Amino acid sequence: MRFKLPYSLSGLMREQARWRRRIAKAVASPTEAITARAAKPRAGRARLSEISGFGTNPGRLRMLEYVPASAGKDSPLVVVIHGCLQNAEGYAKGSGWTKLANENGIILLFPEQRRENNNNLCFNWFRPSAVARDRGELMSIRQMIEHAGDRHEVDQSRVYVHGLSAGAAMAAALLVTYPEMFAAGQLVAGLPYGVARDAVTALSVMKSGPRQSAEDLADLARRVSPNTINWPSVSIWHGAADRIVTPQNARASLQQWLHLHQLQEAGGRMSRDRGGLVHHWDDGTAKPRVEFRLLDSLDHGLPIKPARRPPSQQQPYMLEAALSAPNEFVRSFVSP
């Protein structure tokens, strides 16, 4: 291998410094390397830090996190799961989650898909092996949650999950498979748990909605966690004009979670706000058990408040709307 010789003293010094860093990295112990990567965020990653060594990681995912200065002992943890054609960095920039974390002392965990797992960077919510208990991508995310919870002394009663599209389907799988780990979840433009078994059926459900009855949808979840009595609260958001994941999936998700909570659809409170139709189902507590929002004229994506960003910083599937889904989730479910 040939190397180009620097033609100035400053260039030579930079080359020597570069090689010293490479040698130091090569001889560093695994523990030292993990500590260094965890402590220093990567440049241009919206101050997210990558964490290695969080577990066996059978799903071969990346773990990134954001810990604001306002976080302390017993802070809440929100798991934020991006959609297809997205990554953790872009999602953090476009969604406003880091701003919410700063304002509310929230620790954020960002699982990130690798292209070698899915060429479109989708989480594989439709593969049974990826969403089975203690296997695949689901197990990797569980290990991330446990690792972050231990390191940051998270309040275990205040762990939440938020996801968009395929990320929302993955969030639903987490809520169903590990219900004891979560207080609540927000599913934006997602799909019910268990309605696909491969890519072909996934595409069919995305286009036409699931064929199962409401009771059958609930049974899909009960079979995974048969001893669960107290299911997590859930907030379901969907655009009425979604052309990628039909809103029928949101209605099916609603039926799945109403049955799990043993709530009657007629018992909810319906209203309209700036975004569109809103339904709440309560059980006497301060926070809703099930929330359903169908947003007028919204296509497929995450509804966020308008922000002044140049086109080069705009993220895919981030849609300007009257309401911000992350803001409303924090206000209604995460805040004390």
TrEMBL record:
SUPFAM superfamilies in the record: alpha/beta-Hydrolases
Source species of the chain: Peteryoungia desertarenae
Protein's recorded name: PHB depolymerase family esterase
Keywords: Hydrolase, Signal
Domain of life: Bacteria
Keyword Signal: yes
Pfam families: Esterase_PHB
Stored InterPro entries: AB_hydrolase_fold, Esterase_phb, Plant_Biomass_Hydrol_Est
